[in-house]
Design brief:
Layout (H helix, E strand, L loop, with lengths): L12 E8 L2 E7 L5 E7 L6 E7 L5 E7 L6 E6 L1
Length: 79
């Protein structure tokens, strides 16, 4: 009997690093060559795209985001 497996890669933020004044770098899981967008919200209801990233030939991508408010939330969404 032959078993079939599918690989599921969750798009999520692995690390958040302060890289400059009002700048964060988000390291995200991805599928090689896939595109994803990092979205930002101040209230968890209204989301706007902050940056679109295309991963290289690795299972990760980085996005550098400008901090514009005192409190912001981020999410990663596959395109």
């Amino acid at each position: 009997m032959r078993e079939l497996f599918s690989t599921i890669v969750a798009y999520h933020v692995n690390t958040i690093t302060l890289v400059g004044i009002n700048q964060l770098q988000l390291a995200c899981n991805s599928i090689p060559s896939a595109s994803f967008t990092v979205e930002v919200s101040s209230n968890l209801v209204n989301w706007v795209p902050a940056q679109t990233v295309t991963a290289g030939d690795v299972f990760a991508g980085n996005a550098t985001i400008e901090i514009t408010k005192r409190q912001e939330f981020f999410r990663v969404r596959k395109l």
